[in-house]
Amino acid sequence: MTPGNNGENTPSAPQGDDDPFGYLYEDGQAAGATPPGGGGGYGYPGPRSSYNHVRAVGDRRPYSQGHGQQTYGQQTYGQQVPPQQPQQAPGRPNAHYTAPEAQPGGAPVTAPRYAPAGGGRGRGPNTKGLLIAAIAVVAVVAIGIGAAMLFGGKDEDKGGDAQAGGKSSRAASVQPSEKPSKKPKKEQAELPKTDAKALQLQGGTTTASDVPGAKADGGVYVAGFDKVGAQVTWTVDGIPEDGSYSLRVNYGVPGKDSNATILVNGKKQTRPLNMKNFAHAEEGQWEKGWTNTWAVVQLTKGTNTVTLSCEQSDLCGSTGANIDQMWLVEGDQG
What we know:
This protein has 334 residues and is α+β, with helices and mostly antiparallel strands. The chain has helices spanning 26-30, 127-157, 316-319; strands at 75-76, 79-80, 163-164, 167-168, 193-195, 200-202, 206-208, 221-225, 231-239, 243-252, 258-264, 267-268, 273-275, 290-299, 302-309, 321-330. A hairpin with a 2-residue loop joins strand 3 and strand 4 (167-168).
């Protein structure tokens, strides 16, 4: 309020700052503003009262209410302004509110359906049932493992000797690291062996037993094998098959090396029988010169003859040798 007004509705002339577009606003319309040409200066009907009326905050009543002024319809060009709804205190229902479904043409509202907790038929997976099934499966597996360990241990304690129908109930297992055993060698037939006294003697050879150390029966050996033409022949029976054999000879020399020619079935061999002083006896020590040697010969199945001959080119003619035993070994190894 201003000093000259005192809240009275006194006519006054419009001021120069009157809003010419007051009819466009709600408070202007409440004050009675109308479009130009409707009377009143600058869109207001007739003389306007003071612009300084005091209102409470939020009060949007038109100036005509309580002041004796005439109100005009809130009609604007091409626009219908709906009447303002009174403010509603929080938490209280609006007395003027009408639900949309209660209004004419309103669509019915359907309350949503909610599935009950815990699932059910056609309403989602039955988690409780699945959990029970899983626990049952685990229990069955655990029982099976325990039973296998229990009964398996008993079978091992018995040593795996349980049999059914005379056959072993458990197959023997082969460890990966184990290699299959080699086939057993064919059992070899015992090959012939002879003593000196069973040999056929020629060229001045004879039997003797005065030098100790001979292995033949009774210590008997062949002496006189110290000159050219001396021979001893062994008739061998029971050769199992054709092939190479090792001819073994036990002999004695007087501390010096000697040798002799070999004949198989009358055929001279390319290499002589080596009768070196392998015992390292002193010269003239016949009793300390006993040793053995070997040579490879080719024999045929059945009966063969093996001859030791002192030839002109052999050392036996000057050194001599005593012949003790003769035997054969299969193969060409010494």
